[in-house]
Amino acid sequence: MQQHDILWTPPPALREHSQLARYLAWLEARGLGTFADYQALHRWSITELEPFWQSVWDFCGLRCVVPAERVLGRREMPGAEWFPGMRLNFAANLLRHGEGEGASREAVVCHRETGPEARYSYGQLRRDVGALEAFFRRQGIGCGDRVAGVVTNGYEALVAMLAATSMGAVWSSASPDFGAGAILDRFGQIAPSALVLVNGYGYGGKRFDRRGEFAAMVSALPGLRCVVSIRQLPELGHIEAEGVTGWDQALAQGEGNAPSFTPLPADHPVYILYSSGTTGKPKCIVHGAAGILVNHAKELILHGDLACGDRFMYFTTCGWMMWNWQASALLAGATVITVDGSPGHPDLHRLWELAVQERVTHLGTSARFLAGCRKEGLAPGQRFGLERLRLLFSTGSPLLPEDYDWVYRALPGQLLLGSIAGGTDICGCFVGACPLLPVRRGEIQCRLLGVDAVAMDEQGAVTDGRGELVCRQPLPSMPVAFWQDDDGQRYRAAYFETFAGVWAHGDFVAFTESGGAVIYGRSDATLNPGGVRIGTAEIYRQVELEPMVRDCLVVGRQVDGDVELVLLVVPADAGGLDEARRQALCRRIRTGASPRHVPRHIVAVPDIPYTRSGKKVELAVARLLNGAARADNHDALANPRALEQIRDCLAQAGLLPAAG
Ligand SMILES: CC(=O)CC(=O)O
Predict the structure, then answer these.
(1) Dihedral sign, CA of 654, 655, 656, 658?
(2) CA dihedral of residues 507, 512, 517, 519 (deg, nearest 10)
(3) 425 SS3 class
(4) Per-domain residue ranges of the chain
């Protein structure tokens, strides 16, 4: 199989009846345009930004109380002004399908490691949102306050977010497996007035009691006016701290109240998300209501072909923006199936089994999970059928061509594999899935509608080759601000310093002739041996195919004004890394990529460090290798010990600079 070979073509049913096909007919019927193909539609969407985004709003039936005076006021970046004059409520839009007969439709199904599954209708969800909002208001929480959650991916997290955003409070969440330090690094900056907390969580068949640490954390957040505690571990009591109310009690106190759905300006903050914070305190990224709504409607309804009656399950934690994305599936009237704990417990079949049991139509996971399934030789299609699955999303890191092959070998051929990429910064995607385009091996299908993305070389010229992923025009879901960044200096520094006036995302990318995209890794981790720019994913693509390798990471070591590549490898077995294996790895890299990609050093290590949302931590290792005394923020890592182990291995290999 070659890179870019077609693995899937849209069947006639999608070409005629998908939401995107209906949208095309809708545009034509309204005289907005007739488009021969997706590329023509995309061109229109970036040349006519205002009619395009208005058409998404209208086609998806989004609601506002006062319409906008126009779609775009100021259009310069940073600072583009979306939907000036509009007044709307975010939660009202997510719950709009729960009205009238919609009340009985299933809204949320929760699968937990720590208890039986639970099902909730849209009617129940609305009632609980109204009750929790009323409870919050009685505690003096209101518009503009921050409501923070340390919660698992389940029903309570959705209720709390909707209750907060219904009254105009800002929702921000972390996952309970974060260390208390990592949570305080985040919430300590935004000073929440309310905190919703679990007493512990289950992961991989084990139960983790977090009451002691979380009680201490409550004391370290002085602005709190109320704390709601969830007995995620039902055999344990609530967190013992001042002002704690149990979840059921809080709902009982507010029972009988409907959500207020307070109308607010388009840029009113709804979410605060965080950068990974591996090299310092996480940045607090503030997202606005209308921007998230219209962008998620586009991504989920048009690109994801999600509709009322569909069943949507994304494996995520509340510490990753894919949770916020998943919540927006309610916008389409879909049923959201939440899963907590480990995707690999009791084994890697868990997600596939749940997908069958819950008749899931849209399943989302990470490239790492799919690679794990390939390596284990799973064949979920043969084992479970999975005929209802229409779309499989993958993100978190670039999906290997071999994993495209695995998907179309091991899963039913009808499904669209939607590799998507963007991130926390836009709480969405620049490139991703399209039901009207073929899926090509190793390639993300397209630039999304309304996204004017190109690759730029280091001089700021658009290139057909590999370059920095930039977005040349504003997107509604670009952040409205960073928290406590009144002059916008940190915001500008994060995206607008590489090239003036355009958003540089920090990914290293190439767009293909057919309009698809291949991501080669983070651009700040690109390697420059002999002046040739190499994306880290180009090397992972080769190395991770070797059965002898369980995991790997590559970084550049500065030597005499040049860079030499250092490959860290976690061997898959007790065989370690002898000379024959090293040579085999080098051979594969040389033939699969190029001689330039071959590492100068290969070092065996016990583990590779990951962020809490599952990304390899290249920068912290590079800093270590190039003389930083210590990585800045161990709390940001899922497995901080890995960094210490790597330091020891690098020292043993004589690769660390002499102290002093
Ligand atoms: C959509 C994404 O890009 C998600 C991520 O990888 O963080």
Answers:
(1) positive
(2) -40
(3) helix
(4) 526-652
- 105 CA to centre of ligand 1 in angstroms: 30
**Which residue's CA is minimally distant from atom 7 of ligand 1?**
423
Distance CA 328, CA 270 (A): 12
Q: How far apart are CA 233 and CA 197, in angstroms?
A: 12
Going by alpha carbons, the residue nearest to atom 6 of ligand 1 is: 396
* Half-sphere exposure in the Cβ direction for 422 (13 Å, CA): 29
Q: CA-CA distance, 165 to 424, in Å (whole number)?
A: 19
Could you read off the pLDDT of 300-323 as tens digits, one per residue?
999 999 999 999 999 999 999 999
Cis peptide before 78 (omega within 30 of 0): yes
Q: What values do phi and psi take at 383, rounded to 5?
A: -75, -40
3-state secondary structure of 68: coil
Summarised one tens digit per residue, pLDDT across range 568-617 is 999 999 888 999 999 999 999 999 999 899 999 999 999 999 998 889 99
Strands of the sheet with 311-314, listed across from one edge? 118-121, 106-111, 335-339, 311-314, 362-366, 391-395, 416-419
Sheet holding 446-447, edge to edge: 421-423, 428-432, 446-447
Query: Can you tell me which residue has the tokens 């583990």?
Result: 607
CB-CB contact of 592 with 586 (8 Å): no
Cβ of 421 closer than 6 Å to ligand 1, yes or no, is: yes
Q: CB of 449 closer than 6 A to ligand 1?
A: no
**Of residues 389, 372, 404, the one with CA closest to residue 572:** 372
Q: What is the mean pLDDT of residues 41-61?
A: 98
Q: Does domain 526-652 have CATH number 3.60.20.10?
A: no
The Cα–Cα gap between 350 and 328 comes to: 24
Q: Name the CA dihedral angle for 431, 432, 436, 442, rounded to a multiple of 10 degrees.
A: 100
Residues recorded for the chain: 660
38 vs 302, 443, 629, CA distance in Å? 12, 16, 51
Residue closest via CA to ligand 1's atom 4 equals: 423
Nearest by Cα to 302 from 30, 55, 81, 33: 55
Which residue out of 296, 298, 321 has the highest number of ligand 1 atoms within 8 Å of its CB and is therefore the one to mutate?
Answer: 321
